[in-house]
Amino acid sequence: MAFEQYLASRPEDVGIDSEKLEAVFARAKRDVDDGTLRSAQVAVARRGRLAGVRTYGTVRHGGRAEEVPATNETLYSIFSCTKAVVGAATWALCEEGLLRIEERVAEVIPEFGTNGKEGITVEQVMLHIGGFPYAPFSPFDWDDRERRLQRFASWRLNWEPGTRFEYHATSAHWVLAELIERRTGMDFRAFVRERVLAPAGVEELFLGLPAELNERVADVRHLVPPVPPPGGWGEVTPEAILQFNRPEVRAVGVPGGGGIGGAAQLALFYQVLVNGGEGPSGKRVLEPETIAWATQVRTKDHHRVPILDYPVNRALTVVVAGDDGNMHLRGFGRTCSPRAFGHGGAGGQVGWCDPATGISLGYCTDGFLDELQQGRRITALSSLAAQCAGD
């Protein structure tokens, strides 16, 4: 296991209470034992190391019907948990003076500056208030940069930039990927790995999966009759989710939702962010000041989640728990501090950290359920994990 070197001998060695940690594991296992899910993987970390990792159930690989045991080496599609990883790479650009969030996107990517999009800023893109949530971009064109730029030029606004929030499932992060490439001269996937994942010690969190690792990735499956999720996430259709079972799609590394990894990798990634930007080997990924700056809430009260109508509480590409009584709706359970931040993913994938305690959580599953069951699971797991500190 690539993360074994970061696994503590005992939870108490990193200030985690063993009994409380076992309660997290028991909640994850319950869904598999009662047949709600086929597999689940969960990890809790603190002080730069993993307090524990558990994997339960069975998975399918390569479109085959055969069920095989899930292990700690099983990889999962982490969907929009990917956004925080690409976000951290964008923070690095800003830290190095290669990008400013006040810049207009069209000043960096001229092809984007059409159809009313000329004034959209980098910050608006990172906050999902840019106004182009439904910008079309076929999965068959995802790995074609020329088509990407053609799409940028053809995209039209759905509403005036800055006036409202609506989740940009993939479109905003394709813009961030192009910004990375324009300002570094590197493929965005290579830059994310070299600048963020490698120094963070997160060897098996992939943006662009190597072909030889497909047999370790759990196929996504709908466990109840699928329906499009509410709240303006129209691009995240049941059919689109299943596209991520295709090796050629996993290889693309879709910047808004195509990451492949595991619960341990998510928990370790957030340990870097909650510990001042330093990786487990002592390599620095980001300066503490950069992380503090990037994780400040920048959306306003009128930037609200559609239908459910609560403030979205977004920082630069991540969500912040907040103190308004809605942190459980944002994926942080009910017991995190208001300063906790992270980003979930379709199907109930979870990744967050809490600066007040130093705890981080990663959770992955291959099974899609209805939104109510998914929400209850996230709330329960996050609430239990947030209380694991033993000192």
Mind explaining what this structure looks like?
By secondary structure, this protein is α+β, with helices and mostly antiparallel strands. The chain has 2 domains: 4-79 and 213-386, DD-peptidase/beta-lactamase superfamily (Beta-lactamase, 3-Layer(aba) Sandwich); 88-189, no CATH class. It is 31% helix and 12% strand. The chain is built from 12 helices and 11 strands. The chain has a 7-stranded antiparallel β-sheet, sandwiched between helices. The protein has a two-stranded antiparallel sheet with strand order 4-6. The protein has a two-stranded parallel ribbon with strand order 5-11. The chain is globular, with a radius of gyration of 19 Å.
What is the structure about, briefly put?
Helix content is 31%, strand content 12%. By secondary structure, the protein is α+β, with helices and mostly antiparallel strands.
* Share of helical residues: 25-40%
Tally of individual domains? 2
Number of strands: 11
Structural class from helices and strands? alpha+beta
Radius of gyration: 19 Å
> Which topology of the largest domain does CATH recognise?
Beta-lactamase
Give the CATH level 1 class of the largest domain.
Answer: Alpha Beta
Mean pLDDT: 94
**CATH homologous superfamily descriptor of the largest domain:** DD-peptidase/beta-lactamase superfamily
What share of the residues does DSSP label as strand, in percent? 5-15%
What's the N-to-C terminus distance?
Answer: 29 Å
Q: Major sheet: order of its strands?
A: 3-2-1-10-9-8-7
Q: Estimate the global geometry from the Cα principal axes.
A: globular
Are there runs of 5+ residues with pLDDT below 50, and where?
A: none
- CATH-derived architecture of the largest domain: 3-Layer(aba) Sandwich
> What count of helical segments does DSSP give?
12
Report the major sheet: 7 strands, antiparallel
SSE run = HEEEEHHHHHHEHHEHHEEEEEH
